[in-house]
From TrEMBL:
InterPro entries: Lgt, Redoxin, Thioredoxin-like_sf, Thioredoxin_CS, Thioredoxin_domain, Thioredoxin_ResA/DsbE_sf. It comes from Stenotrophomonas humi. Residues 129-265 form the Thioredoxin domain. It comes from the Bacteria. This is Thioredoxin domain-containing protein. It is found in: Cell envelope.
Amino acid sequence: MISAGPFPLMALVALLALGLGWGFARALTPAADGLRSRVGAVVLDAFLLGLLGARLAHVALHWRDYLAQPLSIIRLGDGGYSIWAGLLVAVGYALWKTRKQAPRKPVLLGLAAGAALWAVGGMALFAVQRSAIPLPDAVLVDMQGQPAPLAAFTGKPVVINLWATWCGPCRREMPVLAAAQQAHPQVQFVFANQGETGEEVAAYLASERMLLDNVLLDDASKVMQQTGARALPTTLFFGADGRLRNVHMGELSRATLETRLRELQ
């Protein structure tokens, strides 16, 4: 997973895009009468409102997936944004706000510069991610103590969930993943436990009455090392060609998981 420390680089690209748009708009604005401050404020507000609009539009488009977990709507880090809706909201707000209070041209050019950096940076990261991270070749161990190479899962879409029994978010998202495994037999789900013994994992599954296929033990955290994952839980989505399609760091909601699975097939 492409990251800088604990932060996904896409989040850093978004912050850089905001900084570029804010700075560019201010640089194009005369310093007199506090215009630069007003222009910067409009760009910042447009960005935040665009982010909110992108989230609400995504939720509206996938409302059925959010019915089971309504609180996941406000979990912004869970992912799920309609980019075009966000752009429309941001531009619409900028046009309205610049009727009288701030110069329009610098604001729109600043938003355009930020959007261009975000788009180019996102496409570049996606291309590097897909080319750099194939399905790991680690050989794990199944619950019966037998070798289980991840390479055996090639040929179909694969979802690899990195988890541990001590991880609260891992435990909270496990029922969502278990239900998805039953509902999507065309996708292979692999639950790669990181650093725990078979006894610990078996005790957890029994206590939760969790029925899962492909529970594997990764006592040396080989998959985390090979993929560059920085935290638990992390869920990796691989296509049938064995190339990485998406990564989610943190707890998955049902809505986001269903969206990722539709993109995977």
